[in-house]
Design goal:
With 238 residues, the chain is of the alpha/beta class. Helix content is 53%, strand content 15%. The protein is globular and about 55 Å long. The N terminus is likely disordered.
Length: 238
Amino acid sequence: MLDFRKSSIIGALLKVLIRFHYPLEVMLTCVRWYVAYPLSLRHIEEMMQERGVVVDHATVHRWAIKMVPVLAAVFRRRKHPVGKSWRMDETYIKVAGEWKYLYRAVDRQGDTVDFLLTAKRDMAAARRFLERAINLHDVPEKITIDKSGANTAAIESVKADACVDILMRQCKYLNNIVEQDHRAVKRVTRPMLGFKSFWSARIIIAGIETMHMIRKWQMDCPAGQPMSAAQQFYSLAV
């Protein structure tokens, strides 16, 4: 039976690719480099020129903006389930000269649960993140946070409205695993010198998080075959 959700995702990718005049492997390579490594767009432009491919840095950015949402959607369908004990925290990302907030959570094994870039750090933002994560992975048994009052209020609000029992723990030591995991994302965003718009920041961060999860072996490989992180990323377009 045809999976209409999958076919719609593939159709969206085809609509994106038909507008470009470069081979798919060239575009995917540039996009993967951008979201996987601490490189600027001009670095990628120079690296491609050394390989005999002339492509402008602005074109690479346009490829990323068009392709990442589709590839990230495919990944979410192939993502492994996560554990029931979550560590939740937020970190800072500069957008248009201002600090914004990237909410993230990992399970006790360090696997990424979900992420969400928000303009503010308050109860409403924390609740949006929690609801998104729960919709993707179901209700956790435990959530560990730091002393954030906004996160505490968000969890209590979700528990009351959804009538679910979630054990909430406030322990900075136990939350160290998610704080360390932030570094993998910040390492890639640092050479970008800040994002120009909130919209583009959300898209590129989704690509960075997707590549980070692939590196942590959080994706079901086709036919269970062992694949490198690069091969897994390219398989999202197949």
